[in-house]
Amino acid sequence: MMSDRRNILLTLSYDGTDFCGWQRQDKADRGTAVRTVQGEIESALEKVHKQPVTLYGSGRTDSGVHASAQAANFFSPIASIPVEKYVYALNSFLPQDIRINDARQVDEDFNARFSATSRTYRYFIYCGKSPLATETRYVWQIHHQPNLRLLNEMASCLRGEIDCATFAAAGDASKSTCRYLENAVFYPDGDKIVFEITANAFLWKMVRSLTGTLIFFEKEGRSAEDFRRALESRDRKSTGPTAPPTGLFLWNVAFDGIRRHV
User: Fold this and answer.
1) Which of 208, 190, 187 is nearest to 132 (CA)?
2) Which residues, including other chains, have CB under 8 Å from residue 30's CB and lie 6 or more apart?
3) Which residues are part of the catalytic machinery?
4) What is d(CA 126, CA 50) in angstroms, rounded to the nearest whole number?
5) What are the 10-residue block averages of pLDDT along the chain, 262 residues in total?
6) Are 148 and 218 contacting, i.e. CB atoms less than 8 angstroms apart?
7) Residue 67: partners with Cβ closer than 8 Å, 6 or more residues away
C-alpha cells in the first residue's frame, strides 16, 4: 500500500527586517512571542494540514537578514493537495513579508540542509548620497566610493578550502571552522556595489564579518596581503567591524554541485 507521505521542497523569499532570524525559537522574549521565518511557515503548514508539520531549512539566517531564494523541505502527511497548490495555499496564511515562490516534490531522503552543495549570499552596499526610502531596509549605506580593484584583490584570497575562524562570531557552535569557498567578488550596480560570495556553507555571521572587514580595510588603504594575514591569523581582533544585517540576502541554494564537508 502506498503511503500518502510526500517530501516537498519549497523555495521562498522574505524580508528579514521584522524577524528574529530563520530558526524557530520556543522561548518568548520578556513575555513577547519571538517572530521567526520558520515559525511563521510552520504555523501556515499546520493550518493547511490540520496537524503540526516540521520545516527543515537549508541554513539559518540571522535577525534582519533577507532571502530571495531560501530552500526548505517538509514531509506532507496527506496526498490530496497537488504539489503546485502549496504555493497558493501557504501564501494565503502567511504574512506579506514571507512568500512561497515554488514547491516541488523531491526524493524521500532529500534534506534542504544536508543535500545542499553550496549557498550564495549577496550583500548590497549603497555608495550614493542617499538611498530611496524603499531601499533603506535592504542596503548598508557607506559614505565613500570604494576602490573596487582593491576590494577584489582582497576578495581573491577567498578561494578554495580555508579555515575561516577569523570571521566566526563568538558563540559559533560549528564543529569545524573550515569552509570551501567557490567565489567572492565585488561588482558595481548603479549607486550600489554588490559583494557576492559562494561557499559550501558559512559560519555564524561570517558574511557580515567579511563584508565589514573588506570595506574597513579598503577605506584604511590596507593591501590584499594585509587581508590575507588577517585571514590566516584566526584572530577575530585582527579584523574590522561586522556589517549590519540590512544589506544581506541569502541569494541562492544549489543542490547540483559537489557535496563537501559540513
Assistant:
1) 190
2) none
3) 62
4) 45
5) 81 97 77 88 97 96 97 94 96 98 97 97 95 96 95 97 90 85 96 97 95 97 96 91 97 93 68
6) no
7) 12, 13, 14, 16, 37, 61, 249, 250, 251
Length reported for the chain: 262
Distance from C-alpha of 164 to C-alpha of 177, rounded to nearest angstrom: 5
Cα 106 off chain centre by: 22
Contact 178, 162 (CB under 8 A): yes
- Residue 254's Cβ-side half-sphere holds a number of Cα atoms within 13 Å equal to 15
Query: Nearest to residue 61, comparing CAs of 9, 121, 8, 118?
Result: 121
Neighbour-count burial for 12-35, b at 16+ CB within 10 Å, e otherwise: bbbbbeebbbbebeeeeeeeeebb
Grid cell of 90 as nine digits: 501557504
pTM beyond 0.90: the answer is yes
Q: State the pLDDT at residue 1.
A: 40
User: Quick one: pLDDT at residue 185?
Assistant: 98
CA–centroid distance for 7 within its chain: 23
Question: Which residue has cell 516537498?
Answer: 8
Residue 182: half-sphere exposure toward Cβ, Cα within 13 Å = 17
Q: How far is CA 194 from CA 59, 90, 127, 137, 257, in A?
A: 21, 32, 11, 15, 24
Q: Which three cell numbers stand for residue 10?
A: 519549497
Q: Where are the alpha helices (DSSP H) in the chain?
A: 37-49, 86-91, 148-155, 206-220, 224-233
- The span from the CA of 144 to the CA of 163, in Å, is 31
Q: What is the pLDDT of residue 61?
A: 95
